[in-house]
Amino acid sequence: MRDDRLRLNDILEPIELIQTFSGGKTLTNLVSDRLYQSAVLHQLYVIGESASRVSETIKSRHQNIPWKVIYGFRNHIAHE
């Protein structure tokens, strides 16, 4: 099983990718560019999946992070 350090890195890497993808882009680009939209949604999915696998210890130490919202959004992307 992967430890929390790796899981947290699995969240940080997609965030960095989204920041890279989004340089100079607008919300209009996100709506109109399907490739960009797909790339961002995939990375959000990865973030949600990783957030759902972070230990309860980390989640309880960082209650200011909306863990359920993050992995709930992953479920929305996957199933809606």
Helix content: over 70%
Mean pLDDT: 95
Based on secondary structure, the structural category is mainly alpha
How much of the sequence lies in strands comes to under 5%
Radius of gyration: 14 Å
**What is the 3D shape?**
elongated
Which blocks of ≥5 consecutive residues have pLDDT under 50? Answer: none
How many DSSP helices?
Answer: 5
| Main beta-sheet strand count, sense and barrel state | none
Q: Structurally, how many domains make up the residues?
A: 1
Q: What separation lies between the terminal Cα atoms?
A: 29 Å
Secondary-structure element sequence? HHHHH
Main attributes?
80 residues, mainly alpha, 5 helices
Quick structural overview:
The protein has 80 residues and is mainly alpha-helical.
Characterise this structure.
- The protein has 80 residues and is mostly helical.
- It is 79% helix and 0% strand.
- The protein contains five helices and no strands.
- Helix 1 packs antiparallel against helix 3 (34-52) and helix 3 crosses helix 5.
- It is elongated.
- The termini are far apart.
